[in-house]
Amino acid sequence: GADTDTDTDTSDRAYFWRAIIDPMANACCPVSAVLETSRFVVGSATTVQINRDAVGRFCQEIAEGTDLVALRKELEWETCGWHFADGGPLTAQYVFVLDSLNFCFWPVEGFEYEHLAGSLRDVLTRNPKAFDAGSLRSLREAGLQAWFPTHELPNCSERVLRLRELGEVLHREFDGEAAKFSASASGSAVNLVQRVIEKLPGFRDTVIYKGRLVHFYKRAQILVSDLWAAFGRRTTDAEHFASFGDMERLTMFADYRVPQLLRHVDILTYTDTLAAAVDSKTPVPFGSDAETEIRAATVVAVDEIQQGLRARGVDVLVVEVDWMLWNRGERDLQSMAPHHRTLTIYY
Question: Which residues carry out catalysis?
């Protein structure tokens, strides 16, 4: 009797784990949820479609013209000349501040990511204590605006809140150090994304679409990817706070430049109504079906591009495909139709 009860108990526990706990763990993984829920949106979409023939043509074009060594050199952290890089914990502090502010440039004409990154680099170069947790916790709008002498900062009040939030968490939990925040993920990019969205509400990039919670986490994922890039793309250095062994699990970063490029090369197609709104620079409301479908289709399309490139011998991560597409979008900016305009803190 006792043996049978033990066997039954063990069997029941195994079933409980396989059937309930294990799927829940996957469903609760923020990164897995991005691609899964984006595919749901694409399958239900009415305003945005992915042209799979165009995906294949684009992959072939890229594969035929890509030198992988040169591509990776182009994507290195310091190649663009905008970023702070001292090889130490101050660079981690810079990345956390940068990606806390890395959203919604378009309301100010001429203000782009390069101005954000370069201005923050200059601030930190002049004053290495500028991004200390104590300074961030007490930051005011005038202080933040002073970091950007050439442009009026869009949505400055919201950006101040994001930096105060960061400063508070760093102060309370990580001795003020972003490097210790990163180290707390124990070498997992996915774990760090999870910790960022748990501790910093401004990174919780989700929306409800047709009654279902859809996940994007653009800034959380790009923060982790920027850390990885800034410290040389380490994957096996267990002692380094920016070495991540699971970078292949991250998705692309759903913003507005990459879908603009994908539409330009016919991979994304919009209905006439949506195309007219985007082309006339009419804002697409945050959380609307159209805005969610643009972002979700971009996530799925970039994932398919990465698979297509790998099938053609170009072995790149999804995050590297994102960076490649973003760089191409920046280069081709003047020849492309406008990007969609959505007022948001998430991208």
Answer: 255
